[in-house]
From TrEMBL:
<dbReference type="Pfam" id="PF12974">
    <property type="entry name" value="Phosphonate-bd"/>
</dbReference>
<protein>
    <recommendedName>
        <fullName>Phosphite transport system-binding protein PtxB</fullName>
    </recommendedName>
</protein>
<feature type="signal peptide">
    <location>
        <begin position="1"/>
        <end position="32"/>
    </location>
</feature>
<keyword id="KW-0732">Signal</keyword>
């Protein structure tokens, strides 16, 4: 009988402990989500692990200054990112100039910034010992990240065609995959941009060189979904100016190979609209 009573007391005590633990977790979760939660989608030019390491420090500081929580997100490849962006799944996003012209009005994203003192330029890379001319790419299979990768694919392909060079594009999913494929000799050349090439694996990069640069345009957009309330959008804009003066943010900018953020408006990308790109 005593044993039975002890078991009953133990079970009641365990239920009370479990209930208290549940309340603690609920309270913790409630406290942790006091700030507005925003998801920041980054175009997957590189691996998700590398992007998260580069981006989350800046997003943390931006969120602190704006009074919100900003969480990094990306996609397994650029086409998947495009679908999510077109569906308005990201509250904020870092997107290439062409992507911005596509989603600016529908589903609706408003520019808040772009990289300071920078324009975007496409590059073509080849193995370091390649001695050919650009015209020697005639008939070659050339690696590109994705059809709508603006500088790495659209600009490089357009300028090759303008020069009368015919080629077969091979889409490999990311900038890093382009550089790795060329370094391994799978492709004679590949398209990318200076920022991703600069941050590519140093050992493999030693086997590569830039053989061509395109014309330059307004760089990637930092944009906010129109579904985010106006007060929060204003806070995010004000925080852009604060970030440029913030020592902690300066370290984050270096990780992204940019000098800082420049406040922007939608019309900054009129140079892209005027290209009349249709894919």
């Amino acid at each position: 009988m005593i044993r039975s009573m002890l078991q009953t007391i133990f079970r009641a005590s365990r239920r009370r402990t479990t209930a208290l633990l549940g309340l603690t977790l609920i309270a913790f979760t409630s406290h942790a989500t006091d700030k507005q939660q925003l998801v920041f989608g980054v175009v997957p030019q590189q691996s998700a692990a590398k992007l998260a390491q580069q981006w989350q420090p800046l997003l943390d500081r931006w969120g602190e200054l704006a009074g919100v929580d900003i969480t990094f997100a990306t996609a397994r490849d650029i086409p998947t990112f495009e679908k999510r962006l077109a569906a308005g799944e990201y509250d904020m996003s870092y997107m290439n100039p062409y992507h911005f012209t596509l989603v600016n009005h529908n589903p609706g994203y408003t520019a808040v910034a772009h990289a300071k003192d920078k324009q975007i330029t496409g590059i073509l890379v080849a193995k370091r010992d390649w001695q050919g001319e650009l015209s020697d790419l005639e008939g070659a299979t050339i690696a590109f990240p994705a059809p709508r990768a603006f500088a790495a694919s659209i600009l490089t392909q357009s300028e090759l065609k303008q020069k009368g060079i015919t080629f077969t594009p091979k889409y490999v999913g990311s900038h890093d995959s382009v550089y790795l494929g060329v370094a391994k000799g799978l492709y004679v050349s590949g398209g990318g941009v200076g920022r991703t090439f600069k941050s590519f694996n140093d050992e493999a990069k030693q086997d590569l060189k830039i053989i061509y640069r395109t014309a330059s345009y307004t760089p990637h957009a930092f944009a906010v979904s129109n579904q985010v309330d106006e007060k929060t959008q204003t806070s995010l804009r004000k925080a852009v100016e604060l970030l440029n003066k913030d020592p902690q943010a300066q370290k984050s900018f270096k990780m992204l190979s940019i000098k800082g953020l420049q406040p922007a408006q939608d019309s900054d990308w009129d140079d892209i609209v005027q290209l009349g790109i249709s894919l």
